[in-house]
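During the reporting period the student researcher (J.K.) took over the structure-prediction task from the postdoctoral fellow and processed the backlog of single-chain submissions. One of the processed entries is reproduced below for the supervisory committee.
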Amino acid sequence: MFKILMVLFLSQLALWACPFDEAKVEVTVVAHKTISKALKDGDYEKASQEIKKQKELYTYFENSTDIALYKELLNATEAKEKAKVKKLLDLSLVLEIKELLAQVDANFDKYQKARLLLIKTKKHLKALTKKREPMKYMKQLLKSIGNPGMMGVGKKDADKKVFKEYKAKLLKYLNNNFEQGG
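J.K. obtained the following structure tokens:
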């Protein structure tokens, strides 16, 4: 009987656990790294191929900005304008971060979903910058969603006010440090 109860208990934990595997591969981050490496190596053809491969991604972002991101990326790569390509790649990460934070806001009361979205946000932020300031904001955002604990042990309440405060700080940082466009 004890074994059956343990199996049932552990299976419930597995179902409840955060699906971190969903946060493993982030297309925007992988594309950013691949294109950046190609640019660093001076391989504009490879960078162009990766941009073309990610056409759906970069055209998707055009709904969030007045820049024709895909076309601008291809043109800048073709013209071998490394700085402009880098700026546009960074813009794609900024747009993704903004969208993820909006989704966290909408799903704030769903701990697992909010945590997964914040982990994805952190991955994008790490690809964008190594600065400490935005990472401090990210840490506070993660704390703001609280923690349901294990059967109530270690429970920390969520604080939407803190979330909004640090979301605003992070967005301000992004807007001040990453130009919108080329």
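The committee noted the following: The chain has a mean pLDDT of 86.
J.K. will present the remaining backlog at the next meeting.
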